[in-house]
Design goal:
five-stranded mixed beta sheet; two-stranded antiparallel sheet
Length: about 375
Protein backbone atom coordinates (compact mmCIF):
# COMPACT_ATOMS: atom_id res chain seq x y z
CA UNK A 1 0.00 0.00 0.00
CA UNK A 2 1.41 3.34 -1.01
CA UNK A 3 1.13 6.37 1.37
CA UNK A 4 1.03 9.91 0.09
CA UNK A 5 2.71 12.55 2.22
CA UNK A 6 1.43 16.18 2.29
CA UNK A 7 3.80 18.99 1.69
CA UNK A 8 4.97 20.89 4.73
CA UNK A 9 3.26 24.05 3.62
CA UNK A 10 -0.10 22.26 3.49
CA UNK A 11 0.40 20.94 6.97
CA UNK A 12 1.20 24.39 8.31
CA UNK A 13 -1.83 25.83 6.52
CA UNK A 14 -4.04 23.16 8.03
CA UNK A 15 -2.63 23.85 11.48
CA UNK A 16 -3.20 27.57 11.05
CA UNK A 17 -6.76 26.97 9.89
CA UNK A 18 -7.36 24.69 12.91
CA UNK A 19 -5.95 27.31 15.23
CA UNK A 20 -8.14 30.02 13.74
CA UNK A 21 -11.21 27.81 13.94
CA UNK A 22 -10.41 26.92 17.58
CA UNK A 23 -9.85 30.53 18.47
CA UNK A 24 -13.09 31.49 16.82
CA UNK A 25 -14.93 28.76 18.71
CA UNK A 26 -13.37 29.86 22.02
CA UNK A 27 -14.27 33.46 21.30
CA UNK A 28 -17.82 32.49 20.49
CA UNK A 29 -18.11 30.45 23.72
CA UNK A 30 -16.63 33.30 25.79
CA UNK A 31 -18.96 35.83 24.22
CA UNK A 32 -21.95 33.56 24.88
CA UNK A 33 -20.90 32.99 28.48
CA UNK A 34 -20.29 36.73 29.04
CA UNK A 35 -23.72 37.52 27.64
CA UNK A 36 -25.36 35.03 30.00
CA UNK A 37 -23.45 36.46 33.02
CA UNK A 38 -24.50 40.00 32.10
CA UNK A 39 -28.14 38.91 31.91
CA UNK A 40 -27.88 37.11 35.30
CA UNK A 41 -26.24 40.16 36.90
CA UNK A 42 -28.99 42.44 35.63
CA UNK A 43 -31.64 40.03 36.91
CA UNK A 44 -29.92 39.84 40.30
CA UNK A 45 -29.67 43.62 40.53
CA UNK A 46 -33.36 43.92 39.62
CA UNK A 47 -34.28 41.37 42.35
CA UNK A 48 -32.08 43.02 45.00
CA UNK A 49 -33.39 46.53 44.31
CA UNK A 50 -36.51 46.22 46.64
CA UNK A 51 -34.37 44.68 49.38
CA UNK A 52 -31.90 47.51 49.12
CA UNK A 53 -34.73 50.04 49.35
CA UNK A 54 -36.17 48.25 52.43
CA UNK A 55 -32.76 48.21 54.10
CA UNK A 56 -32.36 51.92 53.43
CA UNK A 57 -35.85 52.60 54.90
CA UNK A 58 -35.06 50.41 57.93
CA UNK A 59 -31.78 52.25 58.48
CA UNK A 60 -33.60 55.58 58.32
CA UNK A 61 -36.24 54.36 60.80
CA UNK A 62 -33.58 53.06 63.19
CA UNK A 63 -31.83 56.41 62.99
CA UNK A 64 -35.10 58.22 63.81
CA UNK A 65 -35.73 55.87 66.76
CA UNK A 66 -32.24 56.49 68.03
CA UNK A 67 -32.78 60.24 67.93
CA UNK A 68 -36.19 59.86 69.66
CA UNK A 69 -34.74 57.52 72.32
CA UNK A 70 -31.89 59.90 73.07
CA UNK A 71 -34.36 62.80 73.41
CA UNK A 72 -36.66 60.73 75.67
CA UNK A 73 -33.78 59.64 77.87
CA UNK A 74 -32.62 63.22 78.17
CA UNK A 75 -36.13 64.38 79.11
CA UNK A 76 -36.57 61.50 81.58
CA UNK A 77 -33.21 62.22 83.17
CA UNK A 78 -34.16 65.85 83.52
CA UNK A 79 -37.60 64.97 84.98
CA UNK A 80 -36.12 62.47 87.47
CA UNK A 81 -33.53 64.97 88.53
CA UNK A 82 -36.16 67.64 89.08
CA UNK A 83 -38.48 65.22 90.92
CA UNK A 84 -35.66 63.92 93.09
CA UNK A 85 -34.58 67.41 94.02
CA UNK A 86 -38.20 68.31 94.81
CA UNK A 87 -38.68 65.19 96.95
CA UNK A 88 -35.44 65.86 98.76
CA UNK A 89 -36.61 69.39 99.52
CA UNK A 90 -39.99 68.14 100.75
CA UNK A 91 -38.31 65.50 102.90
CA UNK A 92 -35.92 68.07 104.26
CA UNK A 93 -38.78 70.40 105.15
CA UNK A 94 -40.71 67.54 106.76
CA UNK A 95 -37.66 66.50 108.75
CA UNK A 96 -37.11 70.06 109.91
CA UNK A 97 -40.78 70.35 110.89
CA UNK A 98 -40.66 67.07 112.82
CA UNK A 99 -37.48 68.21 114.53
CA UNK A 100 -39.11 71.50 115.51
CA UNK A 101 -42.25 69.74 116.76
CA UNK A 102 -40.13 67.28 118.74
CA UNK A 103 -38.18 70.16 120.22
CA UNK A 104 -41.40 71.96 121.20
CA UNK A 105 -42.84 68.75 122.63
CA UNK A 106 -39.68 68.13 124.64
CA UNK A 107 -39.82 71.70 125.91
CA UNK A 108 -43.46 71.32 126.96
CA UNK A 109 -42.90 67.94 128.58
CA UNK A 110 -39.93 69.28 130.49
CA UNK A 111 -42.48 70.93 132.80
CA UNK A 112 -43.72 68.69 135.58
CA UNK A 113 -47.35 69.79 135.32
CA UNK A 114 -47.50 69.16 131.58
CA UNK A 115 -45.97 65.70 132.04
CA UNK A 116 -48.56 64.85 134.66
CA UNK A 117 -51.47 65.95 132.47
CA UNK A 118 -50.05 64.01 129.53
CA UNK A 119 -49.82 60.86 131.64
CA UNK A 120 -53.38 61.30 132.96
CA UNK A 121 -54.68 61.92 129.42
CA UNK A 122 -53.02 58.73 128.13
CA UNK A 123 -54.45 56.82 131.08
CA UNK A 124 -57.97 58.05 130.42
CA UNK A 125 -57.74 57.17 126.72
CA UNK A 126 -56.72 53.63 127.59
CA UNK A 127 -59.59 53.30 130.05
CA UNK A 128 -62.12 54.51 127.48
CA UNK A 129 -60.66 52.26 124.76
CA UNK A 130 -60.92 49.23 127.05
CA UNK A 131 -64.68 49.70 127.46
CA UNK A 132 -64.89 51.03 131.03
CA UNK A 133 -67.49 53.79 131.45
CA UNK A 134 -66.85 57.09 133.18
CA UNK A 135 -68.24 57.33 136.72
CA UNK A 136 -69.47 53.75 136.53
CA UNK A 137 -66.46 51.47 136.50
CA UNK A 138 -63.71 53.90 137.43
CA UNK A 139 -63.18 57.02 139.51
CA UNK A 140 -60.64 59.71 138.59
CA UNK A 141 -58.64 61.80 141.05
CA UNK A 142 -60.50 60.44 144.07
CA UNK A 143 -59.19 61.59 147.44
CA UNK A 144 -58.86 58.64 149.80
CA UNK A 145 -57.46 58.40 153.26
CA UNK A 146 -57.75 57.57 156.89
CA UNK A 147 -57.41 59.54 160.10
CA UNK A 148 -53.63 59.87 159.85
CA UNK A 149 -53.02 59.88 156.08
CA UNK A 150 -54.58 60.86 152.78
CA UNK A 151 -53.81 60.18 149.13
CA UNK A 152 -55.09 61.08 145.69
CA UNK A 153 -54.41 58.40 143.05
CA UNK A 154 -54.99 59.19 139.41
CA UNK A 155 -57.58 56.44 139.08
CA UNK A 156 -59.32 53.72 141.06
CA UNK A 157 -60.66 50.91 138.92
CA UNK A 158 -63.57 49.13 140.54
CA UNK A 159 -63.65 45.38 140.08
CA UNK A 160 -66.56 43.00 140.32
CA UNK A 161 -67.07 41.73 143.83
CA UNK A 162 -66.47 45.09 145.56
CA UNK A 163 -62.74 45.05 144.83
CA UNK A 164 -60.64 47.82 143.28
CA UNK A 165 -57.25 48.56 141.74
CA UNK A 166 -55.34 51.80 142.27
CA UNK A 167 -53.54 53.27 139.23
CA UNK A 168 -51.10 56.17 139.43
CA UNK A 169 -49.51 57.70 136.30
CA UNK A 170 -45.82 58.61 136.48
CA UNK A 171 -43.83 60.32 133.73
CA UNK A 172 -40.04 60.24 134.49
CA UNK A 173 -39.17 62.11 131.30
CA UNK A 174 -36.50 64.71 132.09
CA UNK A 175 -33.44 62.44 132.16
CA UNK A 176 -34.93 60.34 129.35
CA UNK A 177 -35.10 63.36 127.02
CA UNK A 178 -31.60 64.44 128.01
CA UNK A 179 -30.35 60.94 127.19
CA UNK A 180 -31.92 61.22 123.74
CA UNK A 181 -30.00 64.46 123.14
CA UNK A 182 -26.66 63.20 124.49
CA UNK A 183 -23.77 63.50 122.02
CA UNK A 184 -21.22 61.24 123.73
CA UNK A 185 -21.42 57.83 125.34
CA UNK A 186 -20.36 58.99 128.82
CA UNK A 187 -23.16 61.56 129.01
CA UNK A 188 -25.60 59.01 127.63
CA UNK A 189 -24.79 56.47 130.34
CA UNK A 190 -25.13 59.11 133.07
CA UNK A 191 -28.55 60.21 131.79
CA UNK A 192 -29.76 56.63 131.46
CA UNK A 193 -28.74 55.91 135.04
CA UNK A 194 -30.56 59.06 136.17
CA UNK A 195 -33.67 57.91 134.31
CA UNK A 196 -33.58 54.47 135.97
CA UNK A 197 -33.10 56.13 139.36
CA UNK A 198 -36.15 58.34 138.71
CA UNK A 199 -38.28 55.27 138.00
CA UNK A 200 -37.04 53.66 141.23
CA UNK A 201 -37.94 56.79 143.18
CA UNK A 202 -41.49 56.68 141.81
CA UNK A 203 -41.77 53.04 142.91
CA UNK A 204 -40.59 53.94 146.41
CA UNK A 205 -43.03 56.88 146.54
CA UNK A 206 -45.98 54.66 145.64
CA UNK A 207 -44.89 52.15 148.23
CA UNK A 208 -44.73 54.90 150.85
CA UNK A 209 -48.28 56.10 150.10
CA UNK A 210 -49.67 52.72 151.19
CA UNK A 211 -52.79 52.83 149.05
CA UNK A 212 -53.65 49.30 150.19
CA UNK A 213 -54.45 50.71 153.62
CA UNK A 214 -56.15 53.89 152.39
CA UNK A 215 -58.45 52.36 149.74
CA UNK A 216 -61.00 49.86 151.10
CA UNK A 217 -61.07 46.41 149.47
CA UNK A 218 -58.23 47.30 147.12
CA UNK A 219 -55.96 44.74 145.50
CA UNK A 220 -52.61 43.91 147.08
CA UNK A 221 -50.73 45.99 144.52
CA UNK A 222 -50.64 49.45 142.94
CA UNK A 223 -50.27 49.91 139.17
CA UNK A 224 -47.63 52.49 138.19
CA UNK A 225 -48.56 53.62 134.69
CA UNK A 226 -45.74 54.78 132.39
CA UNK A 227 -47.34 56.37 129.27
CA UNK A 228 -44.55 55.20 126.93
CA UNK A 229 -43.08 51.76 126.29
CA UNK A 230 -39.61 53.33 125.95
CA UNK A 231 -39.67 54.72 129.49
CA UNK A 232 -39.82 51.24 131.05
CA UNK A 233 -37.63 49.58 128.42
CA UNK A 234 -34.83 52.12 128.87
CA UNK A 235 -34.96 51.79 132.65
CA UNK A 236 -34.79 47.99 132.37
CA UNK A 237 -31.65 48.24 130.26
CA UNK A 238 -29.91 49.95 133.17
CA UNK A 239 -31.71 48.09 135.98
CA UNK A 240 -32.58 44.54 134.82
CA UNK A 241 -33.87 43.82 138.34
CA UNK A 242 -36.32 46.72 138.22
CA UNK A 243 -39.44 44.56 137.93
CA UNK A 244 -38.42 42.35 140.85
CA UNK A 245 -37.67 45.47 142.87
CA UNK A 246 -41.15 46.84 142.12
CA UNK A 247 -42.98 43.53 142.73
CA UNK A 248 -41.38 43.18 146.14
CA UNK A 249 -42.96 46.54 147.04
CA UNK A 250 -46.39 45.60 145.62
CA UNK A 251 -45.98 48.00 142.70
CA UNK A 252 -46.66 46.81 139.14
CA UNK A 253 -45.08 48.96 136.39
CA UNK A 254 -47.37 49.04 133.36
CA UNK A 255 -46.99 50.50 129.88
CA UNK A 256 -49.92 51.28 127.53
CA UNK A 257 -49.79 47.74 126.12
CA UNK A 258 -49.83 45.86 129.42
CA UNK A 259 -52.28 48.26 131.08
CA UNK A 260 -54.69 47.95 128.17
CA UNK A 261 -54.64 44.17 128.59
CA UNK A 262 -55.38 44.58 132.32
CA UNK A 263 -58.20 47.08 131.72
CA UNK A 264 -59.68 44.93 128.98
CA UNK A 265 -59.78 42.00 131.38
CA UNK A 266 -61.55 44.17 133.97
CA UNK A 267 -64.05 45.30 131.33
CA UNK A 268 -64.81 41.70 130.36
CA UNK A 269 -65.22 40.82 134.03
CA UNK A 270 -67.78 43.61 134.42
CA UNK A 271 -69.57 42.36 131.32
CA UNK A 272 -69.83 38.87 132.76
CA UNK A 273 -71.07 40.37 136.03
CA UNK A 274 -73.78 42.27 134.19
CA UNK A 275 -74.79 39.11 132.32
CA UNK A 276 -75.10 37.28 135.64
CA UNK A 277 -77.23 40.10 137.05
CA UNK A 278 -79.39 40.06 133.93
CA UNK A 279 -79.79 36.32 134.21
CA UNK A 280 -81.22 36.75 137.71
CA UNK A 281 -83.52 39.49 136.47
CA UNK A 282 -84.62 37.29 133.57
CA UNK A 283 -85.41 34.48 136.02
CA UNK A 284 -87.45 36.83 138.19
CA UNK A 285 -89.33 38.16 135.17
CA UNK A 286 -90.00 34.60 133.98
CA UNK A 287 -91.51 33.60 137.31
CA UNK A 288 -93.66 36.73 137.34
CA UNK A 289 -94.77 36.19 133.75
CA UNK A 290 -95.71 32.57 134.48
CA UNK A 291 -97.76 33.66 137.49
CA UNK A 292 -99.59 36.28 135.42
CA UNK A 293 -100.28 33.77 132.66
CA UNK A 294 -101.84 31.47 135.23
CA UNK A 295 -104.05 34.29 136.49
CA UNK A 296 -105.07 35.15 132.93
CA UNK A 297 -105.89 31.48 132.25
CA UNK A 298 -108.21 31.47 135.27
CA UNK A 299 -109.91 34.60 133.94
CA UNK A 300 -110.39 33.01 130.52
CA UNK A 301 -111.79 29.86 132.12
CA UNK A 302 -114.36 31.91 134.00
CA UNK A 303 -115.22 33.85 130.84
CA UNK A 304 -115.71 30.57 128.97
CA UNK A 305 -117.95 29.22 131.73
CA UNK A 306 -119.96 32.43 131.68
CA UNK A 307 -120.35 32.19 127.90
CA UNK A 308 -121.51 28.57 128.16
CA UNK A 309 -124.02 29.56 130.86
CA UNK A 310 -125.24 32.42 128.67
CA UNK A 311 -125.73 30.04 125.73
CA UNK A 312 -127.61 27.56 127.94
CA UNK A 313 -129.87 30.30 129.34
CA UNK A 314 -130.44 31.59 125.80
CA UNK A 315 -131.45 28.13 124.61
CA UNK A 316 -133.82 27.77 127.62
CA UNK A 317 -135.40 31.09 126.75
CA UNK A 318 -135.77 29.99 123.12
CA UNK A 319 -137.43 26.76 124.24
CA UNK A 320 -139.85 28.64 126.46
CA UNK A 321 -140.59 31.05 123.62
CA UNK A 322 -141.31 28.25 121.18
CA UNK A 323 -143.33 26.00 123.47
CA UNK A 324 -145.14 28.52 125.61
CA UNK A 325 -145.39 31.86 123.87
CA UNK A 326 -145.47 31.23 120.12
CA UNK A 327 -148.14 28.52 120.42
CA UNK A 328 -150.56 31.05 121.89
CA UNK A 329 -149.42 33.82 119.53
CA UNK A 330 -150.11 31.68 116.43
CA UNK A 331 -153.74 31.31 117.51
CA UNK A 332 -154.18 35.03 116.75
CA UNK A 333 -153.14 34.24 113.21
CA UNK A 334 -155.66 31.45 112.97
CA UNK A 335 -158.39 33.93 114.06
CA UNK A 336 -157.34 36.34 111.29
CA UNK A 337 -155.81 38.96 113.47
CA UNK A 338 -152.14 38.35 112.54
CA UNK A 339 -150.45 39.99 109.56
CA UNK A 340 -147.48 37.62 109.13
CA UNK A 341 -146.47 34.22 110.42
CA UNK A 342 -144.17 34.16 113.43
CA UNK A 343 -140.77 32.57 112.71
CA UNK A 344 -139.33 30.42 115.50
CA UNK A 345 -136.00 31.60 116.97
CA UNK A 346 -132.77 29.68 116.30
CA UNK A 347 -131.02 27.73 118.99
CA UNK A 348 -127.27 28.24 119.63
CA UNK A 349 -125.15 25.11 119.33
CA UNK A 350 -121.68 26.77 119.62
CA UNK A 351 -119.89 26.53 122.93
CA UNK A 352 -116.71 28.23 124.17
CA UNK A 353 -113.44 26.42 123.52
CA UNK A 354 -112.05 24.98 126.73
CA UNK A 355 -108.39 25.51 127.78
CA UNK A 356 -106.25 22.59 126.66
CA UNK A 357 -102.66 23.54 127.59
CA UNK A 358 -101.57 21.30 130.48
CA UNK A 359 -99.93 24.11 132.42
CA UNK A 360 -102.99 26.31 132.08
CA UNK A 361 -105.35 23.48 133.11
CA UNK A 362 -103.11 22.67 136.07
CA UNK A 363 -102.94 26.32 137.13
CA UNK A 364 -106.70 26.75 136.74
CA UNK A 365 -107.36 23.61 138.73
Amino acid sequence: MTTTSLPLESVLILLAIGAVVGAAACAAFFLATRSRQTDDLQATESAMAPIAESLQALAAQVERHERTNVAAQTELRSTLTTTWESQVQVLQRSTDEVRREASRLAEVLSRSGARGRWGEMQLRRLVEASGLLDRVDFVEQATVGSIDATGRPDMIIRLAGDRSVVIDAKVPLAAFLEAEQATDDATLQVRLQQHADAVVRHIDALRARDYQRLVPSTAEFVVMFLPSEALLETALQVRPDLLDYAFERNVVPATPTTLFALLRTVSLTWRQERLAEHAQEIRTLGIELHHRLATMAAHFARVGSSLDAAVANYNKAVGSLETRVLVTARQFGDLGTGDAPLEPPTLLHTTSRPLSAPELIADVG
